[in-house]
Amino acid sequence: MDSAKVKKLVSNNIVVVVLILLCIGFGIASDTFFSARNVSNILSQMCTNALLASGLTYAIILGGIDISVGSVAGVAGIIAAYAGLRFPNMGVPFAMLLLIVCGILTGVVCGLINGILIAYLDVIPMICTLSTMTALRGVAFIITGGQPVYGLPTSFAFLGASRIIPTAGMPNGAVPVVVIFTIIVVAIMHILLTRTVFGRHVFAVGSNRNVAHLSGIDVRKVTMLSHMLCSITAGLCGVVIASKLQNGQPNAGNGYEMFAIASTVLGGTSLSGGSGSVARAMFGCAVIAVIKTGMDLLQIYSYWQNVVIGVIIILAVVLDMAQKKGRD
Questions:
Q1: pTM to 2 decimals?
Q2: What is the signed CA dihedral for 101, 107, 113, 116, rounded to 10 degrees?
């Protein structure tokens, strides 16, 4: 393989290269980084970000953005927690169903609001979702009075905190239930984007709205449905957080949108729209999770973690701009 092909391969898979280098670096710096327990923890920590990124990919492919996903997650978790209080003796299957339904319904309502404002009232996505982010966070504090929702049954925690498949080193289970749940949701979002007519319409609208409209695509409908999907995955993220904590926190999901945006852009989704991948966004999520876990193992202050994530976002945007200029 000549150098030009190698350069192109590395350029097209830069996030994978970065992930491998980070794993090697942290593996050398910490003896426990590649332990089964730590790998399981990394996968578990990836889940909330992966859920957000899987839906956010749709909004960014359209050439827009959705920074309300963290607040949607917070509201969904609170609604699920209040619903859980009404069924103190519920079993695990019912608890799982309750969480999923609450997450989806909250996402549908919030996504419908964003979708109508953006698609039918032509509100700029950044301004629209900034407004709904602020409003929804206020709603979360109004509903709870600023206090966590406690007293939930133990079955409520199964989705977010339980593990299955016990091993000798991990008798409580090696595989987090939330990882399986996240894989299913991400797979659905990936298939919907890559194997359906709707997915092709999302790419068409993101590439050129006018051409898509002239081709007979209902641009407004595609835009609204994409923002609904984005909010639905945010709602599912919120119920996962509530399940993991076994309570509803009014500030849950606060700031999570930045990690999701960073992961999505790192995965190659262009901020200018028209290209992106749910599957590749997962590599971006892995990079963020590895950095956070690795820095925790090395006992680096969380403040520095925020600095690193901020730098990653900037580099991802610069790389996206450079690739766009190269295509032009």
A1: 0.93
A2: -100
